[in-house]
């Protein structure tokens, strides 16, 4: 238990569906991150939020829309995804975006049909 | 750029054997992190290294920060079945907001 929870753990959706992934951290951290993990590829950073403000968007397609209502919660809204978006989506948090140690949640395994 | 290259990609070893894996970069890193990811879970931090030449242990795990600051090694002694997983090296990129990860070394331990 790392103090970072993610729901749902598994999600299957069609290309026309709208769904959301949720992340919550109980560590009092100020920075939160979304990563995409595909098979046999390095972790890909998608978004960074620091004190609820988005500080980084790594050229992520607009069909992925993040939301950070407060420092403890992070959402990833999904709309009209493609099959190649199927992956494990990991949330992480750290005390601040300049701190090295990130703590990861268990991930959401997403399958797009 | 600050890409991280991990080797080997995968290892199949017998329980009790020692394991060694490494991570290299063409650029200098000021910090090296080693994470382990078990099936169905997110990566968990094992060891953090902050100084060139630093050697740090965590139980049966030992990691070293290379003198050139362009590489790091992780060793596991007397492996056990629960060591199975993917081991990632990582380090902050230029602006310290972007954590770079290697592609991972997948370890399988046969009882």
What does this structure look like?
The complex is a heterodimer of chains A (113) and B (111). Chain A is mainly β and 113 residues long. Chain A is 0% helix and 57% strand. Chain A is built from no helices and eleven strands. Chain A has strands at 4-7, 10-13, 18-25, 31-37, 44-50, 53-57, 64-70, 73-79, 87-94, 103-104, 108-112. In chain A, strands 2, 4, 5, 6, 9, 10 and 11 form a seven-stranded mixed β-sheet that branches. In chain A, strands 1-3-8-7 form a four-stranded antiparallel β-sheet, with no helix packed on it. Chain A starts with a strand and ends with a strand. Chain B is 0% helix and 54% strand. Chain B has strands at 4-7, 10-14, 19-25, 32-37, 44-49, 55-58, 61-65, 71-76, 85-92, 99-101, 105-110. In chain B, strands 2, 4, 5, 9, 10 and 11 form a six-stranded mixed β-sheet that branches. Chain B is globular, with a radius of gyration of 13 Å. The A-B interface holds A 2, 4, 6, 33, 40-43, 45, 48, 50, 55-56, 58, 90-92, 97-98, 100-107 and B 4, 31, 33, 35, 40-45, 48, 88, 92, 96-104.
The arrangement of helices and strands of chain A along the chain is: EEEEEEEEEEE
Question: Level of helix content of chain A?
Answer: under 10%
Q: How far is the first residue's CA from the last residue's CA of chain B?
A: 40 Å
Helix content of chain B: under 10%
Helix/strand order of chain B: EEEEEEEEEEE
Rg for CA atoms of chain A: 13 Å
Contiguous runs where pLDDT drops below 50 for at least 5 residues of chain B: none
How much of the sequence lies in strands of chain A comes to over 45%
Q: What is the mean pLDDT of chain B?
A: 91
């Amino acid at each position: 238990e790392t103090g970072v929870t993610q729901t749902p753990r598994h999600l299957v959706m069609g290309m026309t569906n709208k769904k959301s992934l949720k992340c919550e951290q109980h560590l009092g951290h100020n920075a939160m991150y979304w990563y995409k993990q595909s098979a046999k590829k390095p972790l890909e950073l998608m978004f960074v939020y620091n004190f609820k403000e988005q500080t980084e968007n790594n050229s992520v397609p607009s069909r992925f829309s993040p939301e950070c209502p407060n420092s403890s919660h992070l959402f990833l809204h999904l709309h009209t995804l493609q099959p190649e978006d199927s992956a494990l989506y990991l949330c992480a948090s750290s005390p601040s975006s300049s701190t090295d140690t990130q703590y990861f949640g268990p991930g959401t395994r997403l399958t797009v049909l | 750029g600050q890409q991280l290259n991990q080797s080997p990609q995968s290892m199949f070893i017998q329980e009790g054997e020692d394991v060694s894996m490494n991570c290299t970069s063409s650029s200098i890193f000021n910090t090296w992190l080693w994470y382990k990811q078990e099936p169905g879970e997110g990566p968990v931090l094992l060891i953090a290294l902050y100084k060139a030449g630093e050697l740090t242990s965590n139980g049966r795990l030992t990691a070293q920060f290379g003198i050139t600051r362009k590489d790091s090694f992780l060793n596991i002694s007397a492996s056990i079945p629960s060591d199975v997983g993917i081991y990632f090296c990582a380090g902050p990129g230029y602006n310290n907001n972007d954590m770079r990860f290697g592609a991972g070394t997948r370890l399988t331990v046969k009882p």
